[in-house]
Design a protein that fits this description.
1 helix, alpha+beta, 4-stranded antiparallel beta sheet, about 120 residues
């Protein structure tokens, strides 16, 4: 018994997404990046992110905050390549936020910006 695809494009489409998945896997393996284990919690004043980053020292780690986006990356010369960005539901106050790296676990305590009304009242003439 001989089995053949009913339509030549059907056969290609079945495996198209598998090729992209394999390509992404190979890119991650080449770059040495795997999704770090991430834990996220929040309270009324701050967000807390905990990431597993074994093998990276605090001198080899960079963290930037812009609005509600936190970017974490390994610097040049780090033994492990890491780069990620997290968008949080509210802007972050970088001045009162803190980061700590203990035993390969990065803990970010990110203070929420207190929303202030920008409404201006005007008089009716």
């Amino acid at each position: 018994m001989l089995f053949a695809a009913a339509h030549p494009h059907l056969h290609r489409n079945v495996y198209a997404s598998a090729g992209r998945t394999l390509e992404r896997f190979l890119d991650d393996a080449r770059m040495g990046t795997r999704a770090a284990q991430t834990h996220y919690t929040q309270d009324e004043n701050s967000f807390t992110l905990k990431l597993d980053l074994p093998g990276v020292s605090k001198e080899q780690l960079g963290i930037s905050i812009e609005g509600a986006v936190v970017r974490i990356y390994s610097k040049e010369g780090a033994p492990r390549h890491y780069r990620a960005a997290y968008e949080l539901p509210q802007d972050i106050d970088a001045a009162t936020s803190e980061a700590r790296l203990d035993n390969g676990v990065l803990t970010l305590k990110l203070a929420k910006v207190v929303p202030m009304s920008k409404a201006t009242e005007i008089n009716v003439l």
